[in-house]
Amino acid sequence: MPQFFLNKRLIILLISIIVLVALVGFSLRDRENASWPEQFVKDVVGFGENIVAKPTSFVSGVFGGVADLKNTYTENQHLKERLEELAQLESEVADLKKENKDLKESLDITDSIRDFDPLNASVISRNPTNWNDQVEIDKGSSDGVKPDMAVTTPSGLIGRVTTTGAKSATVELLTSSDVKNRVSAKVQGDENAFGIINGYDSDTKLLELKQLPYDMKFKKGQKVVTSGLGGKFPAGIFIGTIEKVETDKMGLSQTAFIKPGADMYDLNHVTVLKRSAEAGTTADDTSSSDTTGGN
């Protein structure tokens, strides 16, 4: 009898294993529709996931919104600080502009490069017999060009307009042999030194900066720019650099020999500096009273 029940249990176990294997095989085969047990299990699991997912998504959204709100608040605070800094900076700039204007008026210096509008021009002719003296450009009085306007290249000052036609103008170069060709200049340094560009050595290809103080020390490579004291040229236009300095025969002043920044030998495109409308005509009215006699 016990042997019978043991065999019966073994048979039931084998049948259960066979049925389970059959169900597994049936579930793993390719088919479009799931069996009802699979559908039941999937529906129950999906319903549970949906119940858990919605509150989780809501909580995540709330915390995400709080984080975004905090970031927005922080950014707004930074922007407010920047706006306050900008307002302060604008106030300081306005004060500096006024201070600069007052200083220029007290020094009787009304010209700066900002007071002039650039007019690009091309060199159209150059006489071989006076190569170092002058060039002709393709801009004239109809373009607003007038005598005594400064003419430059990106490398520095080259000269000034002397005469104008309707569509052309003559430019006298810094290297001109004309003794009346004078430009007020200054040597930049810890203490500025003022003098006059007047003369050119064609052998050394150096300009002569005369009437420098006899007791000042100069170094090779110091920059020389327009001083603006002549009333015609804006201050700060680069002219060249010092190559050497000599004391005059009387020992009362020094002469510096300047290497021009611009290539005077090969000129093709130049820029005429026209006085802007905002600058007014004050400097033009006072230019003739310049004590140095330069531009």
Q: Would you write up a description of this structure?
A:
With 295 residues, this protein is of the alpha+beta class. The chain has a domain of 166 residues: Beta Barrel (Thrombin, subunit H). Helix content is 35%, strand content 28%. The strands form two sheets. A six-stranded antiparallel barrel has the order 1-2-5-4-3-12. A six-stranded antiparallel barrel has the order 6-7-8-11-10-9. Strand 4 and strand 5 form a beta hairpin. It holds the Pfam family MreC. Keywords: Cell shape, Coiled coil.
Secondary-structure blueprint of this entry?
Layout: H1 2-28, H2 36-107, E1 116-125, E2 134-137, E3 150-153, E4 156-164, E5 169-173, E6 183-187, E7 193-201, E8 206-213, E9 223-226, E10 238-247, E11 253-260, E12 269-275, H3 282-286
Antiparallel strand pairs: 1-2, 1-12, 2-5, 3-4, 3-12, 4-5, 6-7, 6-9, 7-8, 8-11, 9-10, 10-11
Largest sheet descriptor: 6 strands, antiparallel, barrel
Helix/strand structural class = alpha+beta
Q: How many strands?
A: 12
Count the DSSP helices: 3
Low-confidence stretches: 278-292
- Mean pLDDT equals 78
State the end-to-end CA separation: 136 Å
Q: Describe the strand arrangement of the main beta sheet, using strand numbers.
A: 1-2-5-4-3-12
Strand content: 25-35%
Question: Taking Cα atoms only, what radius of gyration do you get, to the nearest Å?
Answer: 44 Å
Estimate the helix proportion, in percent.
25-40%
Based on Cα principal axes, name the global outline: elongated
Q: In CATH terms, what is the architecture of the domain at 113-278? A: Beta Barrel
CATH superfamily of the domain at 113-278: Rod shape-determining protein MreC, domain 2
CATH C-level label of the domain at 113-278: Mainly Beta
